[in-house]
């Protein structure tokens, strides 16, 4: 039955009013179907990281992925010393979901994510493989001293997307005033609260990241384990009851056709190292983090190749990933 005109009028007065029906689970990925639901990629890293992505068969045979206590474990090589003069990188996993989706609620429940480790660059993200439009739900680099995650959007130049949400509509803060989603590399980015990444995240037994995506907004939420809403735990998530998102990319706070700029998305996980921006002494290795100083190594690339034991905590331990629509 169509909503009444009086109800539609009232909706304009209330922030949390919605005409959409409750979210229903459409895809669930866990230890029972992970290896048939995701594809492993062993192509060169598009960010030019100091990494060698490997196939599922190699990842399983080398112990870089396995099922542990009904959780999905994905790690990086933490034993091999790579010759300093080599162009090779450290072995790792890069996976994509076999089933894309358009609009809905994506929820990742993580017991552990890669720790606060110099050189590591883990990401949980989505993208349209053909048309662009990238949503970085959870990513960070190295041992950023505040242990915060970044939520970032990247769009094609022709979409001219910008977002500048008021401070009272999100928990996070703009990263270096990056409001323009078309900016190369940086995009439009919001930093999460302290402890949303790395060692503090893991010390709190992990948590949940969620992306609520419609044709008019993309909202990223973070909940530490102790603060996960009961409706998520019960399998009936309702973002209207969650309070402020970590990042609020809403078209009413910028100039962006969200529907056109972010078409059908595929889910990605990866852990790379360094990357084009971070691998030199003039990049993020020396400026955004204190890694050059604390490690005594002038470049990220040299550190990653020569210090395998430093990556003992660079692993994902995933309870589940779910899509609701």
Automatic annotation (TrEMBL):
Please list the residue ranges annotated as the GH16 domain: 38-325
Where would one find the signal peptide in this protein?
Answer: 1-22
- One matching Pfam family is GH16_XgeA
The answer to whether UniProt assigns keyword Cytoplasm to this entry is: no
Q: Which SUPFAM superfamilies match?
A: Concanavalin A-like lectins/glucanases (SSF49899)
Q: Which GO terms describe its biological process?
A: glucan catabolic process
Signal recorded as keyword = yes
Source organism superkingdom: Eukaryota
PROSITE patterns per record? GH16_2
Any one GO MF annotation of this record: hydrolase activity, hydrolyzing O-glycosyl compounds
| Record's keyword terms, sorted | Signal
Name the record gives this protein:
Putative endo-1,3(4)-beta-glucanase
Provenance organism: Lachnellula hyalina
